[in-house]
Every structure is written in structure tokens, then in C-alpha cells.
Amino acid sequence: MEPRKVYLDNSATTQVDKKVLETMLPYFSERYGNPNSLHAWGREARAAVDNARSQVASLIGAEPKDVIFTGGGSEADNLAIKGTAWALKDKGKHIITSCIEHHALLHTVEWLSKMGYEYTILPVDKYGFVDPAELEKAIRPDTILTSIMFANNEIGTVEPVAELGEVCRRHGVLFHTDGVQATGHVKIDMKELPVDMMSMAAHKMYGPKGVGGLYVRKGIKLNPVIHGGGQEFGLRAGTENTPGIVGFGKAAEMAAERQANGELEHEAMLRDKLINGILERIPDTRLTGHRAQRLPYHASVCVKYIEGEGMLLLMDAAGIAVSSGSACTSGSLEASHVLLSIGLDAPTAHGSVRLTLSKDTTEEDIDYVLEQFPPIVQRLREMSPFYNKQ
Ligand SMILES: *Cc1c(COP(=O)(O)O)cnc(C)c1O
Question: Which of 99, 168, 302, 328 is catalytic?
């Protein structure tokens, strides 16, 4: 019998759903028109892009013309931050963000600070929450933008986005949220949420890599980051990635169906089984992030007296994919900025493991992980000089 394979690294990327792939395939070769051409080939591609825009908008309760397609989540973050910074530079040059953001956000803000912009980085509490009162205190007369992520990729915490957005709205400050981990996985309705802009990425929700989107509420002025033709309402030049966009649209449609079918609740149930099982079976282990206010597919723990990288490799040998820290920071030995921000010391942070489920994860998969994980930790601890001293 083949040994079981369990992929629990869905925060890094997800498998393209078979139906999504099928929907995309004709747009590579049979329906190859440029959506900007006026002939039948072009009109066919344009209709497909328009349809995808409606599908993505519908998932988040937005209008189709409020969705700008980009080349992924990082690009959407860049467009939101740089686009606002340039558009509003005469109004002010102060930006607020948080210490647990993705590097697509933090490095963009740092880069802007070399161009004469200023920024404030808000702290988080032990669960990773940004406090709306702290945000209010940080707002200055020259603040133009606040960007706080919808949900964190490393610890799964879902931020109080409605409260944070409300504070910004009261003070006339634009509010952007990096929704890459949350889109499709959390119910989001832009008719209710005081959010002005939100970044999305198809590959975190069973769509293809290299395509994403920025939701931009009607009336908000942005400058483009990529200049050229007038595509995407003049905000993102370049011939549209028709197959990718079509795949993103289909992935969005399917996410909406899963939400309507109660699949988020099912996923959260499996997540809790995994979290509880780990905490019960492995001593000296703690959950990172909040117990309930977390992404329905996200489990993350710190296992004391071990190195996350070593554990990742032994889990891999057992056919299980997990991550330690975030995919971008692994490979370096620096502790993750997110784990340090929630108050963990560096040795504890080095024992971080993230296990992120997919829509296709089964209860048997979870049972297999709960059977394999504890002896792996035990093996590693027996080799650790810190553990032997206990
Ligand atoms: C994955 C991720 C990104 C980057 O998205 P790409 O499509 O890989 O560029 C940005 N923010 C968060 C929170 C992410 O998880």
C-alpha cells in the first residue's frame, strides 16, 4: 500500500481545483483572443474576464467594477499602498500598519519611507490582535492610509477588521486590508464592512498562482504602479492573464458555494480536532494565535525543545507537509517577526509548526497526523540538549 500523503501547507499555496483547471484550459489555446481586441476572438476573451470579475465581486459582496485583477497578492498590496501614497501625497504622508503584516506590506511601507513617507507600526497582543483604540491614538492629521491584514498567515488570527475600519472611517483615513488568507475562507461582505481596499490571491483559494485582485471601493482614487495600456480601469497595464483570471473567477464561485454549504464549519471542526489532539498528545506545546477568532483551516503551535525545521523534515519523510514560520522566512534561521511580536522568545518561536488544512482534508488525514506527529517530536526532543536537562 502507498503510504499516506497529507498536504497541510495550504497557507503557502493550495492545489488548483480540477474544475478550476478545466475552466481555464480553453483560454490557453482555443480561446486565445486578446480581451482588448474588438473582433470575435477578443470579445470572447473579454466576456470571460468580465464574467470572472463578477464571480470574484460576488464572493465578497462587491460590484464587478470594484475588482482590479493583478498578478497576485503581493502586487495587490503594492498597488493599494503605493497607489494610495502617490494619489494622496498632497493630503499627507503618514501610513499606519501592524507588526504582523506580510512582507509585501512591510517592505513596501519601508521602501516608501525612503521616499519621504512616514509610518507607524502598531503592536499586537499575545493573540496577534491589533487594538482599535491603539489605532485611533496613532492617527494624525496627515495620516492617509491604514493597512491591517484580515487574517494572519502564520498564526491564523482573524483581526477585528470591522472595528478597525470603523475607526478609520470616523477619521477620514482610507482602510486597506490584506485579505489574501481570508478571501474565500471567511464570510466577507463589502456592503457591510467599512473596508476601502482588500488584496486577494487566487492560489490561496484553489485557483492558479500569479493572479490576484484588489478590491477598491467606488470613488477611491489610486495611482497605477504598472503603467502602459488602459487595462483594469487604467490601474494595471498589460494584456490580461485571461486563463488565470478565468481560474480565479471559477475558484471564487466555488468558494461561495462551499460557504453556502456549511463547509467552513466542517473545516473548523477538523481544525479543532487537530489542535486539541496535538495539545493533548504532545506536552510543552502551545497554540499560537487565538483559539476561536482564527481561520477555519489554520492550526499553529509552538513545540518546546525542538527546531521547527528538523520537525518539518521528519514530517516530510512521513508524507506530511507542514511549515515552520512562513514559507518566505524558512530557509533563514531568523525567528519569525510575527511569533516574536506575540511575545514568544526566540527558542520557543523556533519550534513553530503550522498545519493548514484544505477543503479536501479528511478526518483520516487528521488521524494520521495525530499518530505520526507525537513520536517525531519525541525523537527530536531526545536529541535536544535542552530537553535532556529537564
Ligand atoms: C501569500 C500571501 C501574500 C502574497 O501573495 P502572492 O500571491 O504570493 O503574491 C500576501 N499576503 C498574505 C497574507 C499572504 O498569505
Answer: 328
Cell 478565468 locates to 246
pLDDT at 115: 95
Which residues of the chain form beta strands (DSSP E)?
Answer: 6-7, 67-70, 94-98, 118-122, 143-147, 174-178, 197-201, 212-216, 285-287, 298-303, 320-321, 352-356
**Across 243-375, where does the E strand assignment appear?**
285-287, 298-303, 320-321, 352-356
Burial 89-110 (b: 16+ CB within 10 A, else e): eeebbbbbbbbbbbebbbebbe
Distance CA 193, CA 199 (A): 14
pLDDT at residue 332 in the model = 55
Cα 241 from Cα 24, distance rounded (Å): 11
Active site residue 302: no
pLDDT at 378 (0 to 100): 95
Residue ranges of the chain with per-residue pLDDT less than 70: 1, 326-333, 388-390
pLDDT confidence of residue 327: 42
d(CA 248, CA 59): 11
In the numeric block, the cell 499555496 is attached to 13
Ligand 1 centroid to Cα of residue 201, in Å, is 7
C-alpha cell belonging to residue 27: 483560454
**What's the angle, vertex CA 226, arms to CA 224 and CA 230, rounded to 5?**
70
The pLDDT score that the predictor gives to residue 334 is 74
Q: How far apart are CA 48 and CA 25, in angstroms?
A: 12
As given in the structure block, the three cell numbers for residue 350 are 523556533
Ligand 1, from 79, 102, 328: best to mutate by most atoms within 8 Å of Cβ? 102
The three cell numbers locating residue 277:
489532539
pLDDT tens track for 194-232: 999 999 999 999 999 999 999 999 999 999 999 999 999
Contact 199, 214 (CB under 8 A): yes
Report CA(375)–ligand 1 centroid distance (Å). Answer: 33
